[in-house]
Amino acid sequence: MSRRAASALLASTLFASALVGCSADRGPAETPAPQASTPAPATTPPPQATASAPAIPAGNAPERTFAVGVRQLKLNRDGDRPLPVTVWYPAAGRAGGKPADSARAADGRFPVVMFSHGLGGRPDDYAALLTRWAAAGFVVAAPTFPHTSGGSDRNVLDVLNQPADVSYALTRVLALDGRAGDPLRGRLATDRVAAAGHSAGGVTTIGLFTAGRDDRLAAGIVFAGTGLGVGTAFAGTAAPQLFVHGEADEVVQYAAGKAVYDKVPWPKAMLSLPNGDHGRDLLRDDSSLRVVADTTIEFLRWTLYGDADAKGRIPTASADGNIATLDNRL
């Protein structure tokens, strides 16, 4: 399939349902007419994926729960793609309560997770999940994309430019570890990075392991994603993947997500929620959120901290409440 045909198919698929619930928190929105977009420039095809075991260094994830700090970064790629980034991170102080603006970072070095929002969404829409990741010992950086976020022109074809946005933002975030005077100086485990995203952000995340492969990424989490536009030619060294999808998804059919999952050549698992929809139930309902949060945290503890015990806890976390099933090939 040509890039143009894939782009058109992506647009028609996503717009067919107006991407109702693409954001985890927002309700239905009016559907703008698709607008022309300049696709990302053609690049050399990525190297073929390596199906060998991932290089996960042995280690232990923190056992404590952290307070959470939050800050904003003002980034701009190429001068015409503003990318404000919300960063949640483990903070010093007592755990619990709301994230504290620019709080002092906790002692230690913490892995980084780049998160991509859905069409019409913003990072704050996912705060209930992302702050749990930060409290578990991860620095979570979430860009607000210029053409697919709430209040933008919602040009769905611009999703194809977003893997490069994430890679750019990742470079800038990791640079904070060496920046004199920055609150995160010396606090980032710059060699332990994952990507995650929901819906259109799931497409973005898949793209970071296929046509836009970022070799710094050691793992991925895809919420309600599809490979339309970015393909399923997974590339580079092995990077474990966790797919999370509601079987009652009204926007991106469960079968579409499962088809991409089946193409992943690396260690992988798929958390399926039989009653889960595209976003609101999948990521906001208390019982669903608990299972999704606990399962993804154990996955990140294993892939980024190298915590073998966390890997063993993934099936237990997924089975809590008997509301989800896990296809476990990790």
What's a concise summary of this model?
The chain has 330 residues and is of the alpha/beta class. The protein is 28% helix and 22% strand.
Explain what the structure shows.
The protein is of the alpha/beta class. The chain has a single domain (3-18, 60-329), classed as 3-Layer(aba) Sandwich (Rossmann fold), CATH 3.40.50. It is 28% helix and 22% strand. It contains eight helices and ten strands. It has helices at 3-16, 127-135, 162-175, 200-207, 254-263, 280-283, 286-305, 308-319, and strands at 67-77, 81-91, 100-101, 110-116, 139-143, 188-198, 217-223, 241-246, 268-273, 325-329. It has a ten-stranded mixed sheet with strand order 3-1-2-5-4-6-7-8-9-10, with helices on both faces. Strand 6 (188-198), helix 4 and strand 7 (217-223) form a beta-alpha-beta unit. The protein is globular. The relative contact order is 0.16.
Main traits of this protein?
single chain; 330 residues; alpha/beta; Rossmann fold; ten-stranded mixed β-sheet; 8 helices; 28% helix; 22% strand
Number of helices: 8
Would you report the number of β strands? 10
Largest sheet: 10 strands, mixed
The rough form would be described as globular
Q: Secondary-structure element order, as H and E?
A: HEEEEHEHEHEEHEHHHE
Distance between the termini: 31 Å
CATH architectural grouping: 3-Layer(aba) Sandwich
